[in-house]
Amino acid sequence: MAPHELKSLVRTIPDFPIEGIQFRDITTLIGHGEGFAATVDWLAERVRGSGAEAIAGMEARGFIFGASVAAKLALPFLPIRKSGKLPCETIGVDYALEYGSDRLEMDPASVVSGQRVAMVDDLLATGGTACATATLLRKAGAVVEHAFFVIDLPDLGGAKKLSECGVATAALMEFEGD
């Protein structure tokens, strides 16, 4: 499927979670077998070209795409979790949100020092979660230079923020506005 066909599978829900936001809902994309497969293929091709040795996905929708790409490429998948979700000893990083803060955690033993890790997620907005993920992975010893997204919202500046964090980005599709 062509990128414009895949983009047409993403449902827009106005005024969610608050008034004025156009929520880009990927459940309609992952619910379309051919569209989901084509999206995973697109991501896998870019990850393969990046030389990644593992894939990290951020909770929760990054698990859907990241784990699918990891399985397709027979690479390890590194789940980046919200605080308190892992039963083992973890390392973490706190990061700022628009109205507060949050924390991401991971098992530090899941990364081999110097391992090249690509990040995969469904959506790039402000880049805050992705930059925090890169910081966390680097803290564990990973080399993080690439992040791949299904959707980019370029007006929110996430790609610029990730570039400032030393991470190159690519996205299958873009939506203007919030």
Description:
The chain is an alpha/beta fold and 178 residues long. The chain has a domain of 122 residues: Rossmann fold (3-Layer(aba) Sandwich), CATH 3.40.50. The chain is built from 6 helices and 9 strands; from the N terminus they run αββααβαββββαβαβ. The strands form 2 sheets. The chain has a 7-stranded mixed sheet, sandwiched between helices. Strands 1-2 form a two-stranded antiparallel sheet. Helix 3 crosses helix 4. The longest helix has 18 residues. The two termini are 26 Å apart. 37% of the residues are buried.
The CATH level-2 architecture of the domain at 52-173 is identified as: 3-Layer(aba) Sandwich
Strand order in the sheet with the most strands: 5-6-4-3-7-8-9
Task: Indicate the overall shape.
Answer: globular
User: Helicity range of the residues?
Assistant: 25-40%
> Between the first and last Cα atoms, what is the distance in angstroms?
26 Å
Query: How many helices in DSSP terms?
Result: 6
How many beta-strand runs?
9
Average pLDDT figure? 95
> What is the structural class?
alpha/beta
Q: Which CATH class of the domain at 52-173 applies here?
A: Alpha Beta
Radius of gyration: 16 Å
Q: Give the ordered list of helices and strands.
A: HEEHHEHEEEEHEHE
> Which stretches are low in confidence, meaning pLDDT under 50 for 5 or more residues running?
none
- How can the largest sheet be summarized? 7 strands, mixed
Beta-strand content = 25-35%
The name CATH uses for the topology of the domain at 52-173 is: Rossmann fold
Subunit structure: Homodimer.
GO molecular function, one term: adenine phosphoribosyltransferase activity
EC number: 2.4.2.7
Family: Belongs to the purine/pyrimidine phosphoribosyltransferase family.
